[in-house]
Specification:
This protein is an alpha/beta fold and 285 residues long. The protein is built from 12 helices and 8 strands. It has an 8-stranded mixed beta sheet, sandwiched between helices. α5 packs parallel to α12 (251-282) and α8 (178-195) crosses α9 (200-221).
Length: 285
């Protein structure tokens, strides 16, 4: 699906490199069909040597040469980069943004063109090829555009298509921010292990491996988490005693509140981005 496509990356930092790595190592795309730009010459040299892809300092040239363009830049500079590259953008190209918190409405306002726009939200687990990525489509995407976008992000994990763009904020609150919640839980479990006499090294390993194994069991068994929990929590045993303590501490409520707070903040940031893009257009920036 992607092997005949020219794919350009505007921005080759951590997430950009993770995607390049996924595409090349999975053989979803050929290195000679990928071109990357960045302001850091050392970074571009490293990426070229590691993956055999093409590189350029000219964002406009990357867009001209590409069928699919992935904007992997910080949200604060996305507006500037979009303006810079807009002359080379038209309906023949698929435009994908992974700028966190920037809704499709803001991108459309910034470009002032009818383009095939897709917003994608991978999470940090893309670095180990286990990202959960949400894909949302703009008004003018073609039939195969979503499939192509999913193929790109499936190279670093798994994807879901969000039919309603407004739900991207909920995804951000749950899965975009979710690794931070899990890292906090793992850290707390490791602290508990240390308190009970385990070494820090062993406690952290056991905590991490327990989360990894539990997640894999959920995904592979397709069972409801409540069913799996019941299989561990035998009558009068240790697990049910621990679960009782978690319920007393309000773990479920706290996690629900965390996702709700992160979703609300994502929505607020998106609204600010739309306002900024409108103001920048008024001022001709």
């Amino acid at each position: 699906m992607l092997r005949a496509k020219k794919i350009g990356f505007i921005g080759s930092g951590n997430m950009g490199e993770a995607l390049v790595s996924g595409l090349v190592l999975s053989e979803a795309s050929r290195p000679e069909n990928i071109i990357c730009s960045d302001v850091d010459p050392e970074l571009l040299e490293t990426i070229q040597k590691k993956y055999g892809v093409n590189t350029s300092f000219d964002n406009l040239e990357v867009v001209r040469q590409s069928d699919i363009i992935v904007y992997a830049v910080k949200p604060q500079i996305l507006g500037t980069v979009l303006k810079q590259t807009a002359p080379a953008l038209d309906e023949t190209k698929l435009v994908i943004s992974i700028a966190a918190g920037v809704p499709l409405a803001a991108i459309a306002i910034g470009l002032q063109k009818k383009l095939r726009l897709i917003r994608a939200m991978p999470n940090i687990c893309a670095f180990v090829k286990e990202s959960a990525t949400a894909i949302a489509a703009g008004e003018y995407v073609l039939e195969n555009d979503v499939a192509q976008a999913r193929a790109i992000f499936n190279s670093v994990g798994e994807t879901v298509f969000i039919h309603e763009n407004v739900l991207m904020d909920a995804f951000t609150g749950l899965s975009g921010s979710g690794p931070a919640y899990i890292f906090t839980i793992v850290d707390a479990m490791a602290d508990a292990g240390v308190k009970m006499g385990l070494s820090r090294k062993d406690a952290l390993f056991l905590s991490s491996q327990t989360v990894l194994g539990s997640a894999r069991m959920l995904l592979e068994s397709k069972e409801h988490p409540g069913q799996l929990k019941d299989r561990v929590a035998s009558p009068g045993g240790t697990a049910i005693a621990g679960i009782h303590t978690l319920e007393q501490g309000g773990l479920r409520t706290t996690l629900i509140n965390a996702v709700e707070s992160a979703t609300r903040r994502s929505r607020e940031l998106g609204e600010l981005m739309v306002k900024d893009f409108i103001e920048n257009n008024k001022n001709g920036k």
